[in-house]
Amino acid sequence: MSVRSESVARNPASKPDTTEQNPAVADDAAPYPGAGYAWYVVGVLMLAYTISFIDRQILNLLVGPIKRDLGISDTEMSLLAGLAFALFYTFLGLPIGRMVDKRSRRTIIAVGIVVWSLFTAACGLATKFWHLFLARVGVGVGEAALSPAAYSLVADYFPPNRMGTAMGVYNMGIFVGSGLAYIFGGLVIGMVSGTEHMVLPVVGEVFAWQVVFFVVGLPGILVALLMFTVREPIRRGLKAVRQADGTMKAEDVPIGEVIRYIGANASAVLCHNIGFALLALVGYGVATWLPSFFIRVHGWTPAEIGFAFGIVQLTAGVIGVIGGGWLGDVLKARGHADGRLRVGMMAAVLGVPFAVGMPMVEDGNLALALSIGSTLFFTMCFGAAPAAIAEIMPNQMRGQASAVYLFIVNLIGLGLGPTAVALATDFIFMDENMVGYSLALIGGIALPISALVLWLGCGPYRRSLDKVKAYTA
């Protein structure tokens, strides 16, 4: 059982050492931070995530003008939307995850926000494919700092029976950001339509679509400053060692032990990560190519589909992510230790008819209605999945385990999802107007496999819950 340090024993509510070089161990029964402030922290983190997804997703509405002005194909466009961002986002998440377990999480997030905001603005300076590719890599580098640190913070601010809901609210930023990106992007495109070039102070003459990146990128720096209103909570569930003076201090867990622990729980971790990654693959594929599907097949303008799909993201997406996190908490409270994985299974199974049917219908309004169902179910996993991985890992390993989860989910989901749809369009159907069939094909294959993998992971996941209790005892 964890033991308080002398200072914490005298005052359980005392502020922790924010340098976190070797934080004092708190009794896990000590009170959590006040609910009001904890939800404020989640709100700040959600705002940061919202900004990150505006910067990340705005590219999806600019496919047409970017392809035209830079002379690139659907496959190259998918590399900009997926692989260019995901490559460094996923790989850099691993060392950042280790920093999260040892350093100030709020500082890591603040630095990341500044980096991705500046590189988003740098996308507006691109005049060649590789210019834009490198700028998107920079966006990924900055955003790699956010979620591992945010997941770790939320897990220390909320007790386990409310962690899923809190994770859902944080991940709501994905769909608020995506929705605003589609709506705002559509409005801007509508305003600059018919204008090939614009002249800006300092920068000079640019393509009209480049202005969008300046407008959405630079305000993020203000959010970085807001992060310094967030206090570091006491870390809970730490493996501790007794010092010479009799006090307990958090053990500095070497990377080898982290690897061995994750390896001992490999079945649970891999089934969790791959199962949710396949859900993400379909979700990111749809998010990237659905606007182009409506523009090419149903004749909608970018402004029309931007507003319509933005509303879908802001409603069905938000309901899905919060509802999925809440449902995982409910199932766990009712005795289903693997309840958060069950949420993913449910989302995958129920999402199949919407994923396959939405691109097949001839009426654009009906297709949009079906996209509401697909968005609702695809988003349910985003509250349940991070809470599930935090639940089976000791505190000193949560940042690293979250980074591994994000590595797999984003490499498969974000890195391959948009590209899988584009490859099917370019090389199987060989017609850009068949992008809807590509969406149906990818969804029809990936979602049933996702449900199966998550089902296979339920038993190992329950055993991992017992292992984490034994590790920190």
TrEMBL record:
Residues 41-462 form the Major facilitator superfamily (MFS) profile domain. Its main location: membrane. One of its GO terms (cellular component) is membrane. CDD domains: MFS_spinster_like. Residues 1-26 are annotated as: Disordered. It comes from Zavarzinia compransoris. It is found in: Membrane. Pfam families: MFS_1 (PF07690). It comes from the Bacteria. This is MFS transporter. InterPro entries: MFS (IPR011701), MFS_dom (IPR020846), MFS_spinster-like (IPR044770), MFS_trans_sf (IPR036259). One of its GO terms (molecular function) is transmembrane transporter activity. It is a multi-pass membrane protein. Keywords: Membrane, Transmembrane, Transmembrane helix, Transport. The lineage of its organism: Bacteria, Pseudomonadati, Pseudomonadota, Alphaproteobacteria, Rhodospirillales. The chain crosses the membrane at residues 37-59, 79-96, 108-127, 133-158, 170-194, 206-230, 274-295, 307-331, 343-361, 367-392, 404-429, 435-457.
